[in-house]
Amino acid sequence: MVALLTVLLGAAGARAVETAQPGPVALAAPPPGGFWMKRYPVRAYGAFWHLEVAAKDFAKAREKVEKVLAKRKGVSTVPASSQVGSEKVRYMQWSYVLSRDAAAKALEDLRKLGAVKRETQTENLLPGTDDIPVKLQSLSAERAAAGADAARYPAAFAAAAEIVAHLEEVERSWKDSQDKVLLNLALEEAPR
Predict the structure, then answer these.
(1) Which of the residues 8, 87, 97, 109 could staple to 68 if both were Cys, CB 3.0 to 4.6 A apart?
(2) pLDDT tens across 119-141, in order?
(3) Looking at residue 16, what is its pLDDT?
(4) What are the φ and ψ backbone dihedral angles of 82, each rounded to 5 degrees?
(5) Closest CA to 49 of 110, 127, 90, 129
(6) Which regions in the chain score pLDDT beneath 50?
């Protein structure tokens, strides 16, 4: 416990805790960054787009879907052997990752296949990540200031290193996924 407090409160605060009498520890102010052990999701996509189309000629529409996705350089998230649907039931689903620009152009082409039954575009905002820069700055400054004291508390500094690595991964994933759209497409044959 003392070791973890060293990381979170800084070396000076930890020395006061070490010499204090047993009992509750009162903090003058909460540490910057709020709750430190919060786990943030690592974002893979900047947005989720869904399109459902009913086409008069399922076979021709399916061929066009495959051509559009290939032309726009989409990457399937599902192996071909695991795709939902078939020619027999006249229904098929695709799940592809595309850049925002390519996804927008693909939607323009795919809407022409038939009647659009449903279309949604949802941004993947991951609320509650505003405190990450404050946490990274605080942890980096305190770790640098600890100097030789770090060797006295290896577990605490290892825990702090894990927190920093996770926060940096969340920030990196946010930037890397900004232009990625997960496009889910469902195609069915329109009733005759």
Answers:
(1) 109
(2) 999 999 876 678 888 888 988 88
(3) 44
(4) -110, 5
(5) 110
(6) 1-9, 11-23, 25-27
